[in-house]
Design goal:
8 strands, 2 domains
Length: about 290
Amino acid sequence: MIAFSLVVTAPKGISKCLISDTLVSEADGAALELVIADGSEDIVDISRPGLQHIRLPGRAVFTLRRTGLSHASNDWIVLLEDHCKPMPGLLAAFSNAIRNYPAVDLFSGAIENKTSTSPWSWANVLYTGHRFFSFSHRRPRTASISNLAIRRSALCDSELAHDGGFEVLTLPRLTRSGRYMHCAGAVVDHVQPRTWSKGCATHFHNARCHGAFQRALRDKLGRAWLVESVWAFYGITVRPLRIMLDLRATEHFKLSTLPKLVLLGLAAGAGRLWGLLTGPGLSAQELD
């Protein structure tokens, strides 16, 4: 088994992480290092050999993510969100993929929806993650920050120096260079209950942060406007239909899902354009 650093972002605190007790107990700092980037206000340090508890009270999840990545010490890093529960065999699947494809520096893992199965929770995770589900007919275009493995030497300090740099610069760079591959056997359960209002708010603010980061980190603002405008149009009109096509002939196909996806697309499209318009002056908070 390859030695991993498992980095988990925990904006609501370490107690909300869905990492199993087995993984916590196995974190010895050698075969497995556990790095928890904790953004809660009331924090008691539980650091020990094999477990780094990084305390960043009140900081945005983007800060937690890049700080956790920068503190990882093993050659390979697995990045998860606190509401993603690793399924058995996650690290073994990534380990096998790394051995079989030594030229790859970035692997995405699969996403399932075993727990948060209400209609709005389902639509919420489906809108951004449908390509990562096992039933999807399409391959992901790049890794999801909900479940990925990355070679530590592929990280760039200048990109991690900025909030959003990992998402906007690092992942696209590795994907464009052909150093990315999907690993369908590495699975997490995306546990994130949502109502319609919470789902729309989440998509708006996450997309708003992405748009603001595009404005701050990209050299050509005009090109960023074009890309974000096209993305907003696609996300409202085409993406919901393509997701529905992926659902056809599966138990998940329901016509009532389509308007939910369109509404989430409207929220995300508006958020990206608003963030691009207002820039990084907005607080880069993600509603989790």
